[in-house]
Amino acid sequence: MVRPVQGGAPRGSAILDLGCGGGEPIARYLIDQGLHVTGVDRDAAMIALARTRFPREAWIHADMRTVEIDAKFEGVIAWSSLTQLSRADQAAMAGRAAHWLKPGGRLLFSAEADRDSASSDYRSGSLYHADLGPADYSAALAARGLIEMAHVAEDPACNGAGVWLVRKP
Fold this sequence. Notes:
The protein is α/β, with parallel strands linked by helices and 169 residues long. It has 4 helices and 7 strands, in the order βαβαββαβαββ. It has helices at residues 26-32, 44-53, 87-100, 134-143, and strands at 14-18, 36-41, 58-61, 73-78, 101-111, 147-155, 161-167.
């Protein structure tokens, strides 16, 4: 189980939620902690729902792989959202997250166990689900200058998903 890390984002910090869906439960939790959320999701209906639920926050209908955001954030979260991407796109997201983070900012993401290592991307016709292995994630993060603070390979509290907490120096 991932334990809380001292020195979390202070109230008022800006957090980027990649694959935010309708804002439940992640964005709600962050907002309840006094954080400001910018959410990105490629599903227009989910963004509309998030805007209805949390009209004071920023919601962007876009693909996380290509969205242009000029702002910098104290935190970036991608909870169960990277698994819909190809392995190459998952690795590239480390660079995008590094770009969006302020120095000292943190990236928190989860990655479920790869159930179909033969599949290369979501266009194969079946429900796509793939993840880089832990070593590949670690290499992608390190290549972008990010520092792994904590990693749990298969967290039972997260249905066996891997969980990473990373910091930008």
